[in-house]
Amino acid sequence: RWFWSSVGGLILCLPSSTNEDFFCLRLHFYLTKYQQVSVSKARAIIVLASDENADQSDARALRVVLSLTGVKEGLRGHVVVELCDLDNELLVKLVGGELIETVVAHDVIGRLMIQCALQPGLAQIWEDILGFENAEFYIKRWPQLDGLRFEDVFISFPEAVPCGVKVAASGGKIIINPNDDYVMKEGDEILVIAEDDDTYEPGPLLEVRKCFLPNVSSPPKYPEKILFCGWRRDIDDMIMVLEAFLAPGSQLWMFNDVPEKDREKRLLDGGLDLSGLTNLTLVHKEGNAVIRRHLEGLPLETFDSILILADESVEDSIVHSDSRSLATLLLIRDIQSKRLPSEDTASTPLRHCGFSHSSWIREMQQASDKSIIISEILDSRTRNLVSVSRISDYVLSNELVSMALAMVAEDKQINRVLEELFAEEGNELCIRPAEFYLYDQEELSFYDIMVRGRQRREIVIGYRLANMDRAVINPQCKQQLRNWSLDDVFVVISCDD
């Protein structure tokens, strides 16, 4: 089975599972077979993970990379490798060299789960950006923009939103959210969010009103109370990400069937420095997440967010893992529904949003006065079932990883962009209330709001109106005036410094 990219180039996928019905199945590891399918001419090669455990899958991927480096004619395209364990990434890059781009599926999902738990609504934004649905990252050179400052480039694309610069003088380093006074030089390229790579081009410079922002400061961070249900491989990495995001005094409750006496050793073996946790306190509870009486021993109605993790003990079986996650989700929701009516929780939001307006943020954060539940589902069919039934606030699955693989296959440079946006440091996707940028019912164009966002060192890439179900990324008609409400929200790329 051959896969063609949306722009006409051939993509050769190499599955490593022994029961998949692909012609390519019989080809990996054998150089002569690679030559039969002209692997050297493929524009991109995707090495998919197998259904085995993480180490076995990554070992197979490593062997495929080794064999690809031995192709006599060389490779025209790059190789995108789906890995399961972050610890194996360095070795694969060492073997494959500059041709290799890695996407560590487990790490990507873990980081997205945390981002979506702390900023409700981001799951839909990431699905739109990764899903080739009218809002994708593209990098292209525009010589006519040389000599312009980024603040002028920023409002030069009617059909795109510039997000950064690929700096030729720095070896092609991509700077997301650069300073307004950066001057475009020969060889520099522009990173944008656009519908497709042929749907945008720079237009004439516009005159946009530059007004002062409303005098609204960012609210302080409040301590959070988070619950992890299940013991996930690389859970130590997720704890370190949480430590970077959360305010001092936060708690992470860890509920799983790993004996408490063994947990500290496993976390230390994974590289977690427990003494270095200054914002986060770990609270250990032992039990089975699919047994109701064990779950009833937890204060489920008090958590800001609950993350249901694909448990390490059943990760070899997608069906078994999803069944456990689904059972845990249903039990938690049922326990919460029986407890909450008798307790005075409606008057006290679980998460301190810190904003006087924005009903959507309040709605998503309170999640009908329940904890926000983020479920990790491995099979996209199970994900669709859970999403339609609306029993979970957000469901993250390997489907997002597939989207990321496809995007990196289209353009390897985009991997640098995704890595920064997924990381706990640097620029990140955020949802901001309208009161940061405007006054109630103020008449502004989207360009006006983009320019105001630059005063906060932010890239405004979209919005969600109070009466809309979904956010709009890279809106069209950016010059059109609209009366905005303080219940609207904006999607931005913001630097945490």
From TrEMBL:
InterPro entries in alphabetical order: CASTOR/POLLUX/SYM8-like, CASTOR/POLLUX/SYM8_dom
Signal peptide from the UniProt entry: 1-20
Gene Ontology BP term (one): monoatomic ion transport
Main localization, broad class: membrane
This protein's record includes keyword Cell membrane: no
Keyword line: Ion transport, Membrane, Signal, Transmembrane, Transmembrane helix, Transport
Membrane topology: Multi-pass membrane protein
Entry's Gene Ontology cellular component terms: endomembrane system
One Pfam family this sequence matches: Castor_Poll_mid
Location within or outside the cell: Endomembrane system
Residues covered by the CASTOR/POLLUX/SYM8 ion channel conserved domain: 106-204
PANTHER family on file: ION CHANNEL POLLUX-RELATED (PTHR31563:SF10)
Protein name in the entry: Putative ion channel POLLUX
Species per Swiss-Prot/TrEMBL record: Anthurium amnicola
Name of the encoding gene: Os01g0870100_0
